[in-house]
Design goal:
Blueprint lengths: L2 E2 L10 E4 L29 E4 L3 E4 L13 H6 L3 H7 L4 H6 L5 H7 L9 H11 L6 H10 L4 E5 L5 H8 L6 E5 H4 L6 H11 L6 E5 L2 H9 L3 E4 L3 H10 L7
Parallel strand pairs: 4-5, 4-7, 5-6, 7-8
Antiparallel strand pairs: 1-8, 2-3
């Protein structure tokens, strides 16, 4: 069973939450700054609006979407994973995920020795490898139909747009918290705190779901409820036990 963190059974009531105008939200900033840069997903009404709780924060790669890096990318470069890890620059991908470098800069420093490679071919390889993990899309659909507010909370570069183009995750959730726009990565606690500020919600009213134990533990450290993802069936069971309606 997926790892429950803090509380084995939590029931989240529907309660009114004041959603202030967009002017009270975090401003959009360059991803190279230390401030959060999130799209405004809130209502501009000054009235109280019913906000269904909990808010669900989903990791994307390895939780919703298959990550092609571990199988497809080594094959693209005709290397083993061990060889690829030895050859690639240790910081280039992280910098790309944080929006510190663009595609052209990534191509120049992806490998330690600066060797050229087919960047467009790599992008095509990765896009072909993106697919929903088994059962996850159906679960997202059920949660969406039951009016839960869901956000991506992901370490990923601007190539998240390729995932959106192929799989259209925005039918179910908002690409609100992406490292390439925020300039921070999980498990940096500031990334989680920035998300809470943007959502204007108590951490106990959020459930964070990730296949990385390290990232889940970081969520717990700021009092967000965490679930360690194993597969869609177990996640559905665990959410249901916590009072989340996953019925279709």
């Amino acid at each position: 069973m997926a790892l429950f963190l803090r509380i084995p059974t939590i029931h989240f009531p529907l309660k009114p939450t004041l959603l202030p105008s967009s002017s009270a939200r975090l401003a959009l900033n360059s991803p190279n700054t230390n401030k959060a840069s999130f799209p405004d997903t809130t209502s501009t009404s000054n009235e109280f609006n019913a906000r269904k709780l909990p808010i669900l924060l989903f990791d994307v790669m390895g939780t919703i979407v298959r990550d092609p890096f571990y199988e497809d990318v080594p094959l693209f470069f005709r290397m083993s994973m061990k060889e690829l890890l030895e050859c690639k620059h240790p910081e280039a991908w992280v910098e790309f995920e944080k929006g510190m470098i663009n595609e052209a800069e990534l191509a120049k420093k992806f490998f330690k020795d600066g060797r050229p490679f087919d960047l467009e071919g790599l992008k095509d390889c990765m896009k072909k490898g993106y697919s929903y993990l088994e059962g996850v899309e159906e679960l997202l659909c059920s949660l969406r139909q039951n009016n839960y507010e869901m956000h991506a909370f992901t370490n990923y570069p601007i190539w998240y747009e390729m995932i959106e183009d192929k799989l259209q995750l925005s039918r179910y959730l908002s690409w609100t918290f992406c490292s390439c726009k925020n300039g921070k990565r999980k498990p940096d606690p500031d990334f989680y705190l920035d998300a809470l500020k943007h959502l204007e919600v108590d951490p106990a009213n959020c459930i964070f779901i990730d296949d990385s134990t390290k990232n889940v533990e970081a969520a717990i450290a700021v009092d967000i409820v965490g679930l360690h993802f194993k597969n869609a069936d177990k996640l559905g069971q665990d959410l249901s036990m916590m009072g989340v309606d996953v019925s279709t």
